[in-house]
Write a structure and sequence with these properties.
Number of strands: 5
Number of domains: 1
Bound molecules: D-ribose
CATH superfamily: Sugar-phosphate isomerase, RpiB/LacA/LacB
Length: 145
Amino acid sequence: MIAIGCDHAGVEMKKAIMETLIEKGYKIEDLGTDGAPCDYPVIAEAVCERVISGSCEKGILICGTGIGMSMAANKINGIRAALCSDSFSARFTRLHNDANVMCLGARVLGTGLACELAEIFLSTGFEGGRHQRRIDLIAGLEEKN
Ligand code: RB5
């Protein structure tokens, strides 16, 4: 299951991504907004809670720039949220950072690119090895701070 959420800036992009992912066979849990103006940290928290609890394996968050969503998501222990605008980053944040949430900017990216980035993000695995040590160090930062 994939958790997805957006603020009012990302509604159309979220719909397009959901259609693409459903067509590819993914199951999606939509945490809003349906279009009503809302505060992006509230949506970020709802999506990230699904990822942390394990009820969803990954999350996708969309706001105007993707920046607010990524700032909010990365405040939550255990979340590694990556703001992506290109395919290299979408692939390597999975391979090297084991990112569990991807953030997208609806006012930055075209819808076609956003759908492609979502597919890359969800279909790429973590490489592990030396990268696991660095993920553990990130977790250590959460504990220290
Ligand atoms: C909403 O207008 C906008 O501020 C929000 O979508 C996002 O871009 C914040 O980072």
